[in-house]
Amino acid sequence: MSSMTSSPFRVVVAGGGIAGLEALLALRELGGDRISLTLVSPGDRFRLRPLSVAEPFALGHAQEISYERIAADLDVTHVAAAVEAVDDASGELRTDDRRTLEFDALLLTPGATMVASEQRALTWMPEGAKELFGGLLQDLDEGYVHRIAFVVPPGPTWPLPAYELALMTAREAETMGIEAEITVVTAEAAPLAMLGLEAPDALRGALAAAGVTLVTGTTVQVEQQPHLHLAPDGDGEVIAADRVVFMPALRGPEIEGVPRDDHGFILRSPHGLVEGARRTWAAGDGVASPLKLGGLATHQATGAAREIVRAAGVEPPEEDDELELDAVLMTGTAPVALDDKPLGDASAAPSWWPARKVASRYLEAYLERTRA
Ligand SMILES: Cc1cc2nc3c(=O)[nH]c(=O)nc-3n(C[C@H](O)[C@H](O)[C@H](O)COP(=O)(O)OP(=O)(O)OC[C@H]3O[C@@H](n4cnc5c(N)ncnc54)[C@H](O)[C@@H]3O)c2cc1C
Predict the structure, then answer these.
(1) pLDDT (tens digit, 9 = 90+) per residue, 313-336?
(2) Cα 161–163–169 angle (5° rounding)?
(3) Which contacts (CB < 8 Å, 24+ apart) does range 259-266 have?
(4) Strand partners, 244
(5) Ligand 1 centroid distance, CA of 148 (Å)
């Protein structure tokens, strides 16, 4: 164990998204002044992406916190760059602007990158969603489109926003008194099946109540002749649509020196250490896992943070670290909780959203605090 006068244990967190911010909060809380914290992330702000779904409907917007604010609140040094290469053995990383940083522990939280899943359809991306999806809603409002299909493709993707967009679009049409046929076509065996048993039931109920058609266990091709439609692979009925919106396919961050799977996702052990590494951990969407969810990203982040403070010679307090994959779905009216915890006085008003939208140990409270 190090003495009180030794220099701080240098921790670098690479990626200032949901996992990265949760990790910084946990590390500062658990590690105190025993550790120094550096955040390496491009850009100048954290953005709570899950809320971007509400933007085209003017029902909320993605909360943002500047890295400057986070740096001041948590005594973090922010380096505005992306990590390009990691050398775990020497404890060094290189950034895309050619800086070299030394670390005693590194936590990689770079998230996933998005690629368009289907060239002949819209791909829904959280940045720019307002413009792209706003145009679609306008066409709906003006009567140019009636049938909209949302597609959850196979492989790594974010399924959750597809259901929210479908529900909110159905709600929008209803409010405007417009006839609309909204369909979700998903490769999943059941909607959000990987969340556990309650999720599909609660979600099925919400979709049925909103009149959204659900087609599960189906992958589709977009075809344009003689008119736009979705052709299921295998047998199954053709789905006619005036507009088709795909969720993006996700790929891993591909950082040099970091082992990865075929899609570029980081390979890590269950406790969070990167395969073959001694002082590099990884958490969040950038990690090889069939599930891409903020609640999983934060869980992995706190788990890694605990291991890192241990490596710094600080024993974190005992804690129940069971994973609870809850999430709350926006619907345009009453939100739907995908677990059995009551939502309290939740309403369609967005003020409560950030608090429960992404399950976390530390982030929720910080989001509340910075919003005030
Ligand atoms: C529209 C939408 C709705 C969603 N809704 C929900 C929901 O309701 N509930 C839920 O739990 N989850 C939801 N999710 C999923 C959730 O947003 C993700 O699982 C979560 O953001 C993953 O966190 P992360 O920190 O791994 O990645 P991100 O949040 O994507 O953050 C990654 C960060 O790393 C930075 N970065 C990238 N590459 C590098 C690099 N090489 N070096 C340094 N930094 C880098 C990026 O700039 C970014 O700041 C939703 C996702 C979307 C898109």
Answers:
(1) 999 998 877 777 667 888 888 788
(2) 95
(3) 260/288, 261/288, 263/155, 263/156, 263/288, 264/113, 265/112, 265/156, 265/289, 266/108
(4) 149
(5) 26
Nearest atom in ligand 1 to 287's CA: 26
CB 318 within 8 A of CB 311: no
How far apart, in whole angstroms, are the C-alpha atoms of residue 185 and residue 121?
14
d(C-alpha 333, C-alpha 17), whole Å? 28
Which residue type sits at 74?
A: L
Alpha-carbon gap, residue 187 to 283, rounded angstroms: 25
Which residue's C-alpha comes closest to atom 38 of ligand 1?
A: 110
The per-residue pLDDT for range 287-315, each reduced to its tens digit, is 999 889 998 999 999 999 999 999 999 99
Amino acid 142 reads E
Coil/strand/helix, residue 86? strand
- What residue has token string 């400057």? 68
Q: Among 48-57, 93-102, 120-129, name the most confident range.
A: 93-102
Token pair 């020497």 in the structure block, residue: 90
- The encoded tokens of residue 51 equal 């809320």
Q: For ligand 1, pick from 79, 158, 360 the residue to mutate: most ligand atoms within 8 Å of CB.
A: 158
- Whole-model pTM: value is 0.93
What confidence score (pLDDT) does residue 351 get?
Answer: 47
Chain-centroid distance, C-alpha 300: 13
How far is the CA of 167 from the CAs of 57, 148, 154, 240, in angstroms? 11, 12, 21, 19
Q: What's the sign of the alpha-carbon dihedral 306, 308, 310, 316? A: negative
